[in-house]
Records
---
Amino acid sequence: MDFLNLLARLATLDTEAPATAAPRRAALSRLGQVGTALLPALLAALPAPALAGTKETRTRLDVLKLALKLELLENEFYSRALGLTPGGPTNPAAFFVTTANRAAIQTIQSHEAQHVALFTRLITDAGSPLDAVPNFDFTGSKNGTQPALYPDVYTNLDTFLKVAQLLEDAGVRAYKGQVEFIQTDNYTLEAALRTHSTEARHAAHIRTMRRQRGANVKSWVSPADAPITTAGTVPDAVYSTESNTTQYIVRNSVITKVPFDSSLPINVGTPPLSAAAILAKVAEAFDEPVEAATAEALLQLFTY
Amino acid sequence: MSDSVSTSFLGRTLRRRSFLRVAGATAASSALVLAGCGDDTPTPVVNTTSSLVFANSDLGVLNFAYLLEQLEAAFYQKVVDNFPSDFTAEDKAACIDLRDHEVIHREFLKYALASNAYDVSLSTPLIFNFSSFTLTTRAGVYAAARTLEDVGVAAYNGAGKLLTDPAYLKLLAKLASVEARHAAFVREQVQPGSFAASDVITATGPLAGLDTVKTPAEVAVLIAPFVPVPLVTDGLMTLS
């Protein structure tokens, strides 16, 4: 199976590699013009190309602990909004404007609390002590030690729903990034997949709620969504690779790029879509994973 | 590479036996030819006019997913071909998105399966039967979509542990959460607040908070009304 695993790894290599390699090459070709004195600074500023050797490897316990951190964060985020724990809106009953909004958040919060219980149990059953629960600050100011990213998260429902979308979309991507590390444990794998699709339902509904309030956003992650993050920031990592339209598969034993941009008969509308528009649909049709480090960086924004 | 598609000796024997059992009189002669050809690569799905037999391998699982995506794509195509009169512009745009996603999933899996796709040598594709649905009203379309999307989510949740190749697991997970987004959306159109209701998310017990999971055999029963041939999932059911 080693050779197969290698192929599988190659097939799932970070598909951003060509994109990140290209600016490096371009920069190196410019070196002749700027002189070698700038070399270290120039190279340091460039993203390192993703290589097979940099792929993360994680244990079942690593996976469970990341899952618990995500669920603790989400549970506390919604619990504060609902007034179940301190630190939320001054008047939680009025914050959600409609009873339907509030009921939806109650449904989601109850699932997050159940996920906390599940992953707590699995970690404890594995004989591991639980990590200390961090403090949370959903304005992103780390208890006032840095400028707040979302100062009105509990006074403005639209900001709250933006942060909710960010956390739910991130959760979907984080679980997806972890499934390969628990593949040999059927119970944990199935529990993670079932959590993953629950989070995807939450994410879709938060997006539906935002759209009902006038936001330009689909229930699935789309390049057509109005951005809710700023390029280059930590939150943007939740969306920066989600527009990927390149998938690789092992086909007849050969690693092959799926030809969405050429021969696949996917453009079936009348009239057909433009090349860009059909690729946007391809981006929507695949949710992409993120590695644990990306999920951890996002968690760090809201904890201290 | 034959390891990726082949199975244990026992598994292969079971597959062939189940094939012979279900192949039916009309296909008996070709069945004997296939079973006796001695090819090292097992056929992932045996298709006859009388049944679809899914093999106990990753390719059997992928073919099962392929069938589900074909079913969903055909459903939304039917909706798009003849929108209900009470559909809004937003409904139409959403169903075109859903149709496009499912067509993309279908063609993606077909491309991945290549010569192993169950219908590669079929003279005419399967014609799915949606006559049990009411597709002339908005409510009917979304109720039907809810049924199909919830089955899809449950099927993907059940398929994960059947796969051997981690690359396939990752790829199916990329599709699974999109299906869950679809399910949440269409459920909301049927009944506001039902995006993750207790009929799909386990409400109590040690697995509370988890979405639905179904085995291939359970899924086969649920989609049987729409598929024109019996589905034989015995091989998939031996996987774990």
Note: Chain B touches chain A through 61 residues (CB under 8 Å).
---
Amino acid sequence: MYNEIISHIKNRKTEIIEEWIDRVKEAADERMISVVSEQVFQGTSYEFVDLILLNLDENNSEYKSKLEMFSEKIVRLGWPITFVVSGLRTFTHVVHDDLIQEKKISKDREGEYLEFLDNWLAPLSNEIIHTYASTWEKTVSLQKIALQELSAPLIPVVEHISIMPLVGTIDTERAKLIMENLLEGVVSHRAEVVLIDITGVPVVDTMVAHHVIQAAEAVHLVGARCMLVGIRPEIAQTIVNLGIDLNKFITTSTLRKGMEKALEMTNRKIVELEEVN
Amino acid sequence: MRIPILKLKDCLLVSIQWELDDQTALQFQEDLLKKIHETNARGVVIDITSIDFIDSFIAKVLGDVINMSRLMGAKVVITGIQPAVAITLVELGIRLDDVMTALDLEKGLEKLQQELGD
């Protein structure tokens, strides 16, 4: 019975594809269609169906590698996973409807037939979902590494003064990294004053403040002084409203003022050179 | 094993070279206070560069020693706290807020001289 169905599907390939493309387009988002050009859409659809049909043949090894390639291609094209999976589902319906129309299956054997269809297409959708998921996982882990690299540089600007500019949200993991970099840096650069610049930190909540305070205390322990610079008006408001006590720290609104103060603390100042005539 | 306490002009120098156990720490507390009394020292530098690990008891003893010394009129500077030790202390919630700290022995002595005003 299966062979009959398979040969039938192969024979009516073009009709099935056309019907399928129509239905998919109908269901798909307008935006989705406009992003993908007509040609790519058609081409990919044919490739998709070829692949599905290839699955019917027994030759498994070729199918597997082709399936992997195809999944990767779809992911690269940036098609949403819902679109692809619902497309696969629509294909099942199209084949089903077509077979019924052509009276290839009798009513009493429908259950058996549905099971066959399911066994046929389920691995395909599984593989596609798997490829999507692994691609996402890869992207997420790459981004995590990239973020860690950008996380917390300590810059020795002048002798005895170092600056750590913080950009972006601070979570517990990052706070730990910041603290380690800060302390190692203070010791290796022999800094006396460290400025933590929070201009680039969008929100300062109790947790962020807690981490910054901890870092400042640790800096005090290794024998340097810590200054908190780049406090924007809205951050000053949040800090006071949340009742966070930063009185023990020297704080300034901008890095420039902080730098001046830091120079003052190390008994230095910036002087302009007299003009040479 | 006792920790040696050296006198340098009107300061006392202590270099802790190995991890302290509770007994040694208490012994050290007693010795240091006795020495301050004997020598009339005005400043103490405790260098803990070689210590990589500190527990809450040792931290408490250190804090106590500092407060006791202050009562006896000697200022204390702790020098050479390792980053890992600093992190542990902060995580244990031990602040040592009003304790002077310095990066190394040299800077510690400098700071002490400044504080003592000579």
Note: The beta strands of chain A are 155-158, 161-167, 193-200, 225-229, 250-252.
